[in-house]
Design brief:
alpha/beta; OB fold (Dihydrolipoamide Acetyltransferase, E2P); 3 domains; 6-stranded mixed sheet; GTP binding; rRNA binding; GTPase activity; hydrolase
Length: 293
């Protein structure tokens, strides 16, 4: 019996990495009975006679799981946002940050194509980068030369299982292709009338990059807050968590409550207005969500 991590799932086979070796395994029938589907990223116990005839006996508890791509135990989401083409969007970034934080995944913000900006525009994007750093996020800025982006990102990927996510058309596949040229992920041109890239990847695989593992499929194609409750939302804005210690009421939602320290911090400029506006938008969206039965 041995333990390992599933790095690829394809046609009913699971490829388990254990002590530098990959074993092709099938799942035991007991999984189907218990409605457990092993996922890429799962830590498992398996038994194998040789490299092609193994059986997964047990799936260990997951710390998180994503639906798209179907993957478990993600440590980090590298959120790729371009400074230009498409333009940098704090609204979309905040949406991704909330989703990532709600899954207990550490976000790393990567702003690409900085070299396409004029001087005054660079200052504006750098101001945003500094603000996000002040909230406690890691932010990396790179040029449109994808190779440079990888050099910047490499140290952050060490000993982690990462998934790329972010704006469509910003070059997530291009980044992955530079990391591992033999991937040849189909990079679709931005369809200009939509301003969105076409998505072209199929099964999921974890690939070795330096000393870490990266999913070869970008994550979070759905950006709806289906699993988040209104009372949990403030926890996913770190600067609000800090300010809310001074709120008069515990469980303050920072909307209509009196003596709310978060609203005061917005007034004084300690919390940027755009972050609070996005918070209000997301709060309303979750409140208006149709109940699921």
């Amino acid at each position: 019996m041995a333990e390992g991590k599933i790095i690829k799932a394809l046609s009913g086979f699971y490829y388990v990495l254990s002590e530098g070796q990959i074993t092709q395994c099938r799942g035991r029938g007991v999984f189907r009975k218990n409605k457990v589907t092993p996922l890429v990223g799962d830590y498992v116990e398996f038994q194998a006679e040789n490299e092609t005839e193994g059986y997964i006996l047990k799936v260990f508890e997951r710390k998180n799981e994503l639906v798209r791509p179907p993957i478990a135990n993600v440590d980090q989401a590298i959120l790729v946002f371009s400074a230009r083409e498409p333009d940098f969007s704090t609204g979309l970034l905040d949406r991704f940050l909330v989703l990532v934080e709600s899954k207990e995944i550490d976000p790393l913000i990567c702003i690409t194509k900085m070299d396409l900006l004029k001087q005054d525009e660079i200052q504006e994007v750098e101001k945003y980068a500094e603000q996000y750093r002040s909230f406690g996020y890691e932010v990396v800025a790179t040029s449109s030369k994808t190779e440079e982006g990888i050099e910047e990102l490499a140290p952050y990927m060490r000993d982690k299982t990462s998934v790329f996510a972010g704006q469509s058309g910003v070059g997530k596949s291009s980044l992955l292709n530079v990391i591992k040229p033999e991937l040849e992920l189909k990079t679709a041109m931005i369809s200009s009338h939509l301003g969105r890239g076409k998505h072209t990847t199929r099964h999921v695989e974890l690939i070795h990059i330096g000393d870490g593992l990266v999913a070869d499929t970008p994550g979070f194609s759905s950006l709806e807050f289906t699993d988040i409750e209104v009372e949990d939302l403030p926890h996913y804005f770190p600067e609000m968590v800090e300010a809310s210690e001074q709120c008069k009421f515990r469980g303050c939602l920072h909307i209509n409550e009196p003596k709310c320290a978060v609203k005061k911090a917005v007034e004084t400029g300690d919390i940027p207005g755009y972050r609070y506006d996005h918070y209000l938008t997301f709060h309303q969206e979750i409140k208006d969500r149709k109940p699921r039965y």
